[in-house]
Design a protein that fits this description.
With 89 residues, the chain is mainly α. The chain is built from two helices and no strands.
């Protein structure tokens, strides 16, 4: 009876190891490599899109600040010319 128990445990462990090794081997087939590359490309594309969206938001905010400053006749960037400033009237 004890031998049957250990035989069953050995078969179960062997089956799990075989499945794990098959999955790892699948990653090195042409289809597996293509899938990995595709996932990486999609991730890169999403990162670029997020960056572009963030830049556009920043540009829109800055443009709104500039328009408001021009409408009020304010000095925009004193750091550029601290003595003179910029007068947009």
């Amino acid at each position: 009876m004890r031998r049957l128990l250990w035989l069953g445990v050995g078969l179960a462990v062997g089956g799990l190891v075989f499945r794990a090794m098959s999955k790892k081997a699948q990653a090195f087939t042409p289809e597996g490599i293509a899938g990995s590359v595709q996932q990486s490309a999609v991730g890169l594309l999403e990162s670029v899109r997020t960056f572009v969206d963030d830049v556009r938001e920043g540009m829109a905010e800055r443009e709104a600040e500039i328009h408001a400053a021009i409408a009020e006749g304010l000095i925009l960037d004193e750091e550029l010319n601290p003595e003179e400033g910029i007068d947009y009237r």
